Amino acid sequence: MKIAGLMGREISIECADERKRPEKSEVERLLADNSSAQKILAWKPAWNLDEGLKETIKWFSMKENQSLYKSEIYNI
User: Fold this and answer.
1) What residues make up the domain containing 72?
2) Residue 12 phi/psi, 5° resolution?
3) Beta strand residue intervals within the chain, DSSP E
């Protein structure tokens, strides 16, 4: 699948069957809601989703951080 967006260029998403989780092995989708933290703790997120994704992309793009991400292993 090809998508374009926050990275400013078209990218391909690859899916390896051996990395897919078995059906019914766990929750497929998690829906987070921080409204309780906002009410109880008066907490506010530092970034919205788009800003957070941009910061994540920027971090992964930095040469000094690339050795910290081990794409060859499957982390859970």
Assistant:
1) 47-76
2) -105, 140
3) 2-4, 10-12
